């Protein structure tokens, strides 16, 4: 199975970081500006391409065919114009119920001197990988609908139940195409595999394409709206910066499947995040007397990340594509500032990995909601 990996680094937890210690009760949010965190270094190995079925041949003939096929694959790997259509043969097609999709222009000009568009589709596990270029004069919901149907037919897999996408500018086209196919469109930045794949393709494909335009800015840049006031139904009673060893985080991930716990996880093995089990992962714990209803509300928001604005003593919650809330504020003083800075430093040291936990009490060992989150910058395309 194709995978991705971040460059390994020594992770440290600042000594000033406090575990399971409340900072403040929820206070009235204030509006503040926000910037994306710095990008974590990363690289992906080359992704495998879809191979058709083979007839029975002798061992010698098969070896010769394999050698020729490997040479052809190597040539394809070096050709940035080659399109990708791959399905992991060990994957159950019926398990691919959720796809991640991007349909956008690339910093590449076609023979007409117009920007080339590309459809990129995958699933969270990268068992499905598909790319296809399009001229800019056929970009509409009909083209997208036909392409989605084509993926299903060409690879012999059913249409998905959901398709996640992260560009608000493409919402109309994607929504219309999905609705006509009976697929639920989900606007969300929790397209981690897709976002990292696009980052990899920029370095290994787009910049090597003969039509590449150096310095070209993305046509559909991601929105970064001013944060809004938090809806009443999303308020908790108390919150605290906390930390858990990675081993405990993995246990919480397992509880999402084994218990009635709301939340969402990330495939750390697929992401190749090589962190020792004893490494402390920063998180935010929220307690509420109505913890289960609160977790249920949060579960429908496609929670993406949590960011601390130290200057404004505020926490920013990002959900969906471009919705950002001032999640909470705290009284600014040297102690709380140091703790907030330590939390952000710990998050950066772990490659952006962090979590949100909703509990009935901050002293409890159990969670009713748990979301494993990963801060990612916008893609370069």
What tags apply to this protein structure?
381 residues; Nucleotidyltransferase, domain 5; 6-stranded mixed sheet; 8 helices
What is the count of β-strands?
Answer: 18
How many helical stretches? 8
N-to-C CA distance: 25 Å
Shape: globular
Mean pLDDT: 80
- The portion of residues assigned to helices is 25-40%
Helix and strand run: EEEHEEEEHEHEHEEHEHEHEEEHEE
Strand percentage: 25-35%
Tally of discrete structural domains: 2
Structural class: alpha/beta
- Gyration radius (Cα, Å) is 22 Å
Major beta-sheet overview: 6 strands, mixed
Strand order of the largest sheet: 2-11-13-17-18-12
Low-confidence stretches: 1-63
Pfam families: Tab2-like_C, Tab2-like_N
Organism: Cannabis sativa
Domain RNA-binding protein Tab2/Atab2 C-terminal: 218-373
Region (Disordered): 1-81
Question: What would you say this structure looks like, in words?
Answer:
It holds the Pfam family Tab2-like_N. Residues 218-373 form the RNA-binding protein Tab2/Atab2 C-terminal domain. With 381 residues, the chain is of the alpha/beta class. The chain has two domains: 85-205, 2-Layer Sandwich (Nucleotidyltransferase, domain 5); 228-374, no CATH class. It has helices at 59-77, 141-155, 171-181, 192-204, 246-258, 268-271, 291-299, 334-349; strands at residues 5-6, 21-25, 42-43, 85-87, 98-109, 115-123, 128-134, 162-165, 184-187, 228-229, 238-245, 262-264, 280-287, 303-309, 314-319, 323-329, 353-359, 369-374. A six-stranded mixed sheet has the order 2-11-13-17-18-12. Helix 2 packs across helix 3 (171-181). The protein starts with a strand and ends in a 7-residue tail after the last strand. The model is unreliable at 1-63 (pLDDT under 50).
